[in-house]
Amino acid sequence: MTFSILPPMPIYELIGILGFALYVTNYSLLTTRCLSSDCLAYFCINLVAASCVLLGLMASFNLASALLQIFWVAMSLVGILVRLKRRGTSAPV
Predict the structure, then answer these.
(1) Which residue in 43, 46, 47, 87 has a CA-CA distance of 20 to 30 Å to 70?
(2) At residue 91, does pLDDT exceed 70?
(3) How far apart are CA 29 and CA 17, in angstroms?
């Protein structure tokens, strides 16, 4: 017989917790100026975090939270595309 202090968590909840950890880490890096908000990595981390939290909502759905995560996914994609386009146009000919 196995005893555990923590109840078993569905994989979706674990993915959601990973998303939370990525959000907190990304914001901490931004606050301590280890990462710039103009950096491509900032938007990539936000994209992964929002996607993880959105998947985590499959365990316990909440429409308001889902809409917020969809917004973060969309804005992260816009931020990534803008920065990639900026890199492409700033290359010397």
Answers:
(1) 87
(2) no
(3) 18
